[in-house]
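mannose-1-phosphate guanylyltransferase: structure, please.
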Amino acid sequence: MAPRIHPVILSGGSGERLWPLSRAQRPKQLLSLATERTMLQETAARVAAVPLCAAPMVIANDTHRFLVAEQLQQMGAAARRIVLEPAGRNTAPAAAVAALFLSAEDPEALMALIPSDHVVQDKAAFAAAMEKAHAAALAGALTTFGISPSRPETGYGYIRPGKTLPAIDGAYRVAAFVEKPDLAAAEAYLAAGDHYWNSGIFVFSARRYLEELERQRPDILAACHKALDGASQDRDFLHLDPAAFAACPSESIDYAVMERSEHTVVIPCDMGWSDVGAWNALWEITEKDAAGNAFLGNCMTQDVEGSYLRSEDGRLIAAIGLEDMVVISTEDAVFVAPRDNTMAVRGLVKRLKDAGRQEATRDLSASPRRKGAFS
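Here you go.
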């Protein structure tokens, strides 16, 4: 019997680009943004629906441990383990810790690295891609999912596919990983149809990943070994050794391994994917009215088009004559920006932090969403 895939759900991000709703104390993966369930819960449900997948491991920030455990418990999703990072060190160390843990129990273990803060609308397409990735991983490939671009996006990395992988229909060798392009290059990729967005979802055998990491970044592997060797168990939580993990270099799996490996494979997958990396991205996946507006909560508008208005605190958002704008009202902040410039919010959050403002990280976003909108 072929080994199952062990999903490793990454829940360590801060989600600053969705401020003021997403804060360090309660980041976007722990919020209900696209559905009634939180993004973490949606991710857990998505992998649970794939027959090839075992119970997931969750890697989270220590600060969020009780929220993560509570949200999984609410939906009846039993995690194989909740591994707690004392500090964020990006995706390559997180994958290393998971691979070390899994390979110690089963040298042939397969794993899938899955961000908890992405939206996947086509669950069947996701499951089909996982089946192909399972076959590729068994063949020794380091596999990622490629998303067909729908716009000339400059905020994503791209993948250029090469030759077809033998015996696996719809899988291709990676010819090149491409850094985030400028607008002209992104437009050329879109027109040519020969590049995919890098989804940040990876499937491979734990052993193959550790072999690649040993060759490319032995310093990361050594630090993760120490962090896991010195870990302590507390009920459902595995606390990584703070000093050892703090000493680990912070690096993404793309830079540390994928871009340097000769065994990378991309599986194109149109699954209604979004990383919900900004308010504009959330507007794109939210149901809209005839004028292209998405209203959530207590809103009343006149002559508003192409905008995203969201009241989280019950206060009325009243707007006239807006076009392509974002307006977010929470208990302690109101955010207003052009919809095509919401990526700049990270700079605003940094200014708030530098000024010592509690609104930068303080958690006042837990109020339930008020339903009902008027226009």
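Notes: The domain at 5-274 is CATH 3.90.550.10 (Spore Coat Polysaccharide Biosynthesis Protein SpsA; Chain A).
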